[in-house]
Design a protein that fits this description.
homotetramer; 106 residues; mainly alpha; Helix Hairpins; 5 helices; hydrolase (chains A, B, C, D); Nucleotide pyrophosphohydrolase (chains A, B, C, D)
Chain lengths: 106, 106, 106, 106
């Protein structure tokens, strides 16, 4: 589970600033896309990037993901485990091993 | 902390399929942006979205975030907490309360 | 057609700086996603945005789109017209009128 | 100029389906980010991509860009040329030649 302490700290941070009003699911989804673009910018012209910069941008994406999960009443780790079960079925190890092809091209 | 079990399950899933070879930091950053776009698509024409669809897409963004964190030797929750400390300083509660303006416009 | 002058000016600009070496199709696709995120940021917390800011960010997305079209030997307007023909068939006016649903839900 | 015919055809296409109601600047910005993600997906695991697939996805990004330009009363080519003038000043050829560094690191 994403530590209760991380979720609590984030919740406190948001409440102190009365920012919950801006955190509609749609605004949070937009924010995730925006931060994902900033993370990608670390690699704009090269496959290599400054690790500290990547850490900071990845933190931003994760932060908004945790906020969105909270907003829709979901647990981040539960979401990942549930989706993993679905993906396991779509990509059986014997068929998918070593291949990056999409499931309908296996 | 993101449960050891989630990280371990993801690692096992990837290893079984020999997919680690595709998981360069750059490819993972691209994947996060791609999935962020699919999450945003839930809200393309409306501020409301089907919760199950949002859960599934959010799970995909989170999954690639956890994989990238692993790849660069970082702990997802540590990243978030570290960034929160930085953001706290940029947005003091007394100045930022109730305002969505960027820190250089407070 | 996107004016020969725009394409020529962009080409001259890139050549003067010897930047063509960075303009692989992949890097240009990453750049388009990055700039699309910056454009989206104009609307992060609100449906309204500063028009000048939107103009500038939209210009960046368009610039990289034109560069990518050039790189793959395509004409931007031709691409749009060709795709429009495909979309017309997917969304017949009588079925799609006034509805934002995807074509498989019409 | 982006051919009057392209803009007119797009406008007719939208009007026939009464889709203008969905084309707020915000929704169009979201759409551009969504399509940019689909374009990027062509390159998710490799620097090489199927050209026809790239043409189709690039067409989608361009289409929404043209629609947004129309919506805010701007001409796509004008936007690009205006921005180019700004970028020329930020990246003087003598300083920027052959370098992908950002303008504040030249």
């Amino acid at each position: 589970m994403t530590a209760r302490s991380v979720r609590d700290e984030l919740a406190a941070f948001v409440a102190e600033r009365d920012w919950g009003q801006f955190h509609t699911p749609e605004n949070l989804a937009k924010s995730i896309a925006i931060e994902a673009g900033e993370l990608l910018e670390c690699f704009q012209w090269s496959p290599d990037a400054d690790t500290d910069r990547v850490r900071g941008e990845l933190a931003d994406v994760l932060t908004y993901c945790i906020l969105l999960a909270e907003r829709i009443g979901a647990d981040p780790d539960q979401l990942v485990l549930e989706k993993l079960a679905v993906t396991r079925a779509k990509y059986p190890a014997d068929k998918a091993r070593g291949r990056s092809a999409k499931y309908d091209a296996l």
